[in-house]
Specification:
The protein is an alpha+beta fold. It contains 21 helices and 13 strands. A hairpin with a 2-residue loop joins strand 2 and strand 3 (58-61). It is elongated and about 115 Å long. The N and C termini lie far apart (94 Å).
Length: 570
């Protein structure tokens, strides 16, 4: 039995030094003959019959590599534990002076761990290995189930040294070990690794810090406020903080102040992470974002909109998980609306979209075969179904170059899709607002109020020529221009189609009149057209780089103000 074990150990050591899972039959026979003096064929046949080895010309340990590692560990245990001696190995297999350095080789890791499991006290081995591979040292004491405080301190100290290394592999090992140690002292160095340029390392550090849970909160808050750290490191600390902290903790000044700074950082990851955390704070987060944007010049806001475009998680900007547009609705109260150019009419309560339809939201319609399915284009047989090129293919920008007819078709499509998903009932319809509805949503008239006393529009509160942006920008960048009901961008950025045909006074003309009303002004129209009472128009078939649309939702039985029941847009 002893001879058989010694043979298995010798074969295992040879195979492991060759980094092979197989050994030629001829080589195995030579090892047996050198070590035992017995008939090698008989010994080998016995090993094969017992099932520890398998194969014919190429032999391997059965049933798994772990068996090979176990016998290699048995063979090398004493020599490894003594650490100092160089000698001819067991049964003539040479164990070279670099064996200890094999601790840096992943191929040998399990063998060292098995040696620790066989040792009476693995701490001595772990302390020796810590200088080479603290991660392996940690596993050795775990396997031996006898870790002591001094060993932990030595492993931790070496790991903290390694994470400062310029070598990626050493930083990775140091991070892995600190993650396993789970000691409070490991938190700070792990947090510094959040800014590592190697994704594997900063993801590893992030996962490790998150396992500390609530205990990590003060360390993460400190990192968030440490301006000596890179913006991406602070952003990743913020992301982790949002995962492990209670919401009330996120609302503390020590979090909100650096959060506000990071939100406008030119690093995309910092801006996107900050936005995600702000939106997780719901109303308070949205209010803070409004203040942040208001305190930045228009050009800086535009840059921010581009940075977060593909990850813009503001409600009402892009699409939902089911692929449909995510529309944020605000209730508009009833009032009588009209003036010098517009006949007075009664507007009943309805809901207005917070933003104009964005590029991402309109793309959902296109991707759902919106331009090829006849059902959406009824009453428009002669309207070309040709998609106009977009000057800006940015997710959170308003969709432009859209005709009035395309806007109507989009409304039909979204109504059907929302009904199918039980978002709305058959008693509600999504459509374009009429001019009267649009104006009420923008101004918020109150009955018996003198309309002449409505405050004038400040052209600096939107993307008008006065803002000097020179093009369309992301929606919602001018919160100071928010309407009383919560709608954004109703003055500037793009002109918006209304449902009704255009007329100087009544707002209605012949049914074959193709002129449709536009409201809101734009980035390139005269500033005065951004005033909420200013009227504009274009042929319904016209497309423009500053023309888009906004949605409203109303009861189906509510007749659109100033629109004939026979109008093709109804």
């Amino acid at each position: 039995e002893t001879d058989r074990l010694r043979v298995l150990e010798a074969i295992a050591v040879y195979m492991h030094q060759e980094k092979s899972l197989t050994i030629k039959r001829k080589q195995a026979l030579a090892i047996i003959e050198r070590g035992t003096g017995l008939n090698p064929e008989l010994v080998l046949q016995n090993l094969l019959q017992n099932g520890l080895l398998t194969g014919d010309r190429d032999l391997r340990f059965a049933p798994h590599q772990t068996i090979q590692e176990y016998f290699a560990a048995r063979a090398l245990k004493e020599e490894i534990l003594r650490i100092a001696r160089k000698r001819t190995g067991l049964l003539g297999v040479f164990v070279g002076p670099g064996l200890l350095e094999a601790a840096n080789d992943p191929w040998w890791a399990e063998t060292f761990i098995q040696i620790a499991g066989l040792a009476d006290d693995p701490n001595a081995l772990a302390v020796t290995l810590a200088d080479l591979n603290p991660w392996l040292a940690w596993w050795c004491v775990q396997e031996g189930r006898a870790v002591n405080k001094r060993t932990t301190q030595i492993i931790q100290a070496k790991s903290m040294e390694m994470i400062q290394s310029p070598k990626v592999e050493e930083r990775r090992r140091g991070a892995e070990t600190l993650a396993k140690l789970q000691t409070p002292r490991a938190l700070e160095p792990l947090i510094t690794l959040l800014g590592d340029s190697v994704p594997e390392i900063h993801h590893l550090a992030s996962d490790a810090v998150s396992t500390f849970g609530e205990a990590a909160v003060p360390f993460l808050v400190d990192a968030l406020n440490d301006e000596s750290l890179m913006a991406v490191a602070r952003a990743r600390a913020l992301n982790l903080l949002a995962q492990v902290a209670y919401k009330d903790e996120l609302k503390s000044p020590r979090v909100l102040k650096p959060l506000a700074q990071l939100a406008m950082n030119p690093q995309p990851e910092a801006a996107i992470t900050s936005l995600q955390v702000l939106m997780s704070l719901e109303d308070e987060g949205e209010a803070l974002l409004d203040r942040i944007l208001t305190n930045r010049p228009p050009a800086r806001r535009v840059k921010w909109g581009e940075l977060v475009a593909e990850n813009d998680c503001r409600p009402g900007v892009t699409i939902r998980a089911d692929g449909l547009p995510d529309i944020a609705w605000y209730k508009v109260e009833a009032a009588t609306v009209g003036g010098i150019e517009l006949e007075y009419r009664r507007v009943e309560p309805f809901y207005i979209a917070k933003y104009p339809v964005t590029h991402a939201q309109y793309q959902a319609f296109i991707d759902d075969d919106g331009y090829t399915r006849d059902v959406w284009w009824q009453k428009f047989p002669n309207i070309p179904r040709v998609l106009r090129a977009q000057p800006f293919k940015i997710a959170n920008y308003p969709r432009v170059n859209i005709s009035w007819y395309e806007a109507i078709v989009f409304c039909r499509w979204l109504t059907a899709r929302y009904r199918a998903s039980n978002e709305i009932s058959e008693k509600w319809v999504i459509r374009l607002p009429t001019e009267w509805e649009w104006e009420q949503a923008a101004i918020g008239y109150i009955d018996d109020e003198d309309h002449d006393r409505i405050p004038g529009f400040d052209v600096t509160r939107g993307n008008t020529p006065a803002a000097k942006i020179g093009g369309v920008c992301a929606v919602g960048l001018f919160p100071e221009g928010r309407s009383p009901f919560g709608a954004m961008d109703m003055g500037g950025n793009i002109r918006e189609w209304c449902l009704n045909v255009y007329n100087w006074h009544t707002g209605t003309r012949r049914l074959d009149d193709d002129r449709r009303s536009l409201r809101g002004g734009s980035w390139e129209e005269a500033d005065y057209l951004a005033a909420p009472t200013a009227r504009d128009f274009a042929a319904g078939s016209e497309r423009g780089r500053d023309i888009g649309f906004r949605l409203c939702i109303a009861p189906l039985n509510l007749k659109p103000v100033g629109v004939s029941p026979e109008d093709p847009g109804v």
